[in-house]
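Sample pair:
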Amino acid sequence: MKTNLDLESNNGLIISEPMSIKPEWIDFNGHLNMAYYNVLFDTAFDSVCVILGLGPEYAETRKLTTYTGEIHLCYLRELHLEHKVYGTFQLIDFDEKRMHVYQELRHVDGWLAATCEGMSLHVDMTGPKVAPYPQDIFDNIKNLAERQSGLQIPDSVGRKIEIRRKNT
């Protein structure tokens, strides 16, 4: 998948190429099944991994990869078969073994369909176990963080699931 590498023109965001919805992803309610929002987010994340040097060749040659440790997905607007979408990627925080990320899934017309906040873990596949990034990869992540340092953290980051009760 090609990815828009001109980060400056996108306020620092990484934006995926447009993605199509497949007929088999439509559920009996006539819209995109919830599981396939994850597929779209993961596809967009994979393109970011390539930019950072964490793509398929990295896993094959270095026996290191990323695993998803946690995600929080919010469905905001239905997607249908005829819709095309793109993903955005923002690095919220990182350390030597993890990336805290925020993604949006947007219709090509610009409206927001879903958000996904996640924790990505760097994994040594020979364990498997969580392991530090090699210096070259860590430097790539640090560079991305610097390029995105002017972005505001979205209001929905850190949101928790709860039933809000009125005080009686």
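The chain has three helices and eight strands.
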